[in-house]
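Blinded run. Sample ID left blank on purpose so nobody reads anything into the name before looking at the predicted structure. Input follows.
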Amino acid sequence: MPPGTGDTQLTISQQLKVNGAIIVTTPQDIALIDAVKGIAMFNKVNIPLLGLVQNMSHYICPNCHHESHIFGSKGAEREAKNHDLEILGSIPLNEEICTQSDAGKPVVVSSPDSPISDPYVDIARKVLNQLE
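Blinded prediction complete.
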């Protein structure tokens, strides 16, 4: 769902059978404010939280392989700890993810053997394990 805790999110949460929710956030404090609101909303409507995913968690330079935390670091980890949730994974800021998504081809489909697909596969495995 889109960020926030508005009517759309509440209606879906109340009218559909939902086995669990995943909160996706970026590391910035401003994004984490919305993530915490989402956590509170899912708790109020008794939907189990499966964990947090930190999107755009870091950028790895394709030339020198230096890792930069453009939007800050460990914000999702801090909130996960505060709310007793698991970090399901971290997705890097990566041009291939953007390009393939815009083309309608998720990176796990367009490049399933690429290391950039690994975080998605790991997150999916963790979610499946929780739902079994």
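Unblinding after everyone has recorded impressions. Residues 7-93 form a domain with the Rossmann fold fold (CATH 3.40.50.300).
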